[in-house]
Amino acid sequence: MFPTGFVWGAATSAYQIEGALTADGRGRSIWDTFCSQDGRIVGGDNAETAIDHYNRYRDDVKLMADLGLTAYRFSVSWPRIQPDGSGAYNAKGLDFYKRLVDELLSYGIDPWLTLYHWDLPQALEEAGGWPSRDTSKRFADFAATVHAELGDRVRHWSTVNEPWCSAFLGYASGEHAPGRREPAAALRAAHHLNLAHGLAVQAMRAQNADSQIGGCVNVYPVTPATGSEADQDAARRIDGLQNRFFLDALLKGAYPEDVLADLSHLSDMEFIQDGDLATIAAPLDMLLINYYSRFTVSGAPGGAASAAAAPTDSGSPWIGSEHVGFVNGGRPVTSMGWEVDGSGLYEMLRRIADEYPRVPLYISENGAAYDDLIGEDGTVHDPERVSYIDAHLRICHSAIESGIPLQGYFAWSLMDNFEWAWGYGKRFGLVYVDYETQARTMKSSALWYADTIRHGGLLSRAQ
Ligand code: FCB
After folding, report:
1. For residue 230, how far is its CA from the centre of ligand 1 (angstroms)?
2. 103, 125, 162, 384: which one is catalytic?
3. 419 is annotated as an active-site residue
4. Residue 95 is part of which domain span?
5. What CATH number has the domain bearing residue 146?
6. pLDDT per residue over 248-295, tens digit each?
7. Is 461 part of a structural domain of the chain?
8. CA-to-CA distance for 260 and 250, rounded, in angstroms?
9. Does 270 qualify as catalytic in the annotation?
10. What's the rounded Cα separation, in Å, for the pair 273 and 79?
C-alpha cells in the first residue's frame, strides 16, 4: 500500500499528442521544421495530427477520470501561446490550456503543468536557439505569462523537461530538433536551459507563493562494463554529463569540476556568468525525475552504442566523451532497445536523497514501449508493460519505506503518441491509439493501473 496522498498520475507532452499545428494562431516550432526535413523521422512521420488531442481533449480527460488518475502531467506548447517566442501572446492558445485545466479540475484531477517539453518557437531558433543566452530570458517571460494566466487553477509547475535531451540530442547528436551537430553550441545550450529554469522559477515565485515549482531531469545510473580504469573513467564521464551536470546545478548551485575539465577543449565557459548558478539553484518545492533505464559503458574503443542508439543518422550526444561505448548489460530490453532495470531507479533515488539537499521527489515519467497489437476482440494485451510498471512501482514503494521522500508516480505515457525521431512506431501508452481512426482503447496495463490506483497499492505480483 502506498501512503495516503501519494500522487497517481500519467504524463504526456503537447507536441506528441496535440496535432492542430496551424490551428488558432499557433506559430511554428523547431519540431515542425525538423519533421519536414528528409531523413529526420523514421518513416517520414510528422505530428500534424498526432493523436488529435487538441480536438479530443474532453474525451481524453474522461479516460483519465475512468483510470482514476489523481494527477495529469502535460506540457503547454510555447508557439501556441506565444507564436514567435517573443512579443505578442495568442489568447486562443492560452484558452485551450484553460479549457483543458478546467476540464481536469471538474473531475478532481490535479493538473501538473510543464512549461517546456522541447517545442521551441522556430523564430527563437532562428535568433540562435538555446545556445543563445537571450532564449533563457524569453523563456522566463513566457513562464511568467503562463503562470499569471493559469496560476489561479494550476498548483504544480515544472520548468524544462529533460534539459539533457534538448541540449545534447538537439545540438550535439542532431537526432532531435533543431538537428544541429555542434558540440560547443550544445554545451552553451545546456547552460542556457538550466538558466532558463532558474529564471522561470524566480519569475513565477515573484507572482504566487502558493505554486509548487520544480525542475525535471532524466537520470540514468551508469555502470562501468568492467573494473578497468578506462571503463571507470567512461562511467564517471557519462554520469557527469547525464546526471551531475543538471542535478548539481539545480540542487547545489555548481557545475561538477571534472565535467567542466572534460569539456574544456570546447569552450572557455565564458558564457557562465557571475550569479548564474545562484539563479539556477533557486530553492525548489519538488524535483521531477524521469527514469527509464541503466547505461553500461566502456572506455575501450569499439563499444557498441546500443543503449543510446539513435533511430536516424546522427552524431554523438556525449560531447567530450564521444569515445565511450554503450554496451549490452544483459537485461531484457523494451522495443526501444532500452534495458529494463528497476534497481537503477532505486539507486538514483537513494543517491538524490542522500547526496543533495532534501526536496520532495516525484517520478514524472516511467514506462516502456512494446509492440502492442489490437486483437480481433478489440483488446490490447500488454503483460510486459504491466510487469515493467509493477516492478518500478515496487521499487518506489521500497524507496518510500526506506525514508526517501518520494511522493508520486506518473506513467509515461497516458496514450500512444508521436515518439519524436521514432515517429509513431513506438507505443508507450497505457491507452492504445489507432492512428487511422483515433479510437482509444485501454490496454490491459491501463485496466491494471486503474485497479492499482483504486486499491491504493499493488495487489499481487503481476505476471
Ligand atoms: C522522454 C521524453 C518523453 C518521451 C519518453 C519516452 O525522454 O521526455 O517525451 O519521449 O522519453
Report:
1. 30
2. 162
3. no
4. 7-455
5. 3.20.20.80
6. 999 999 999 999 999 999 999 999 999 999 999 999 999 999 999 999
7. no
8. 16
9. no
10. 28
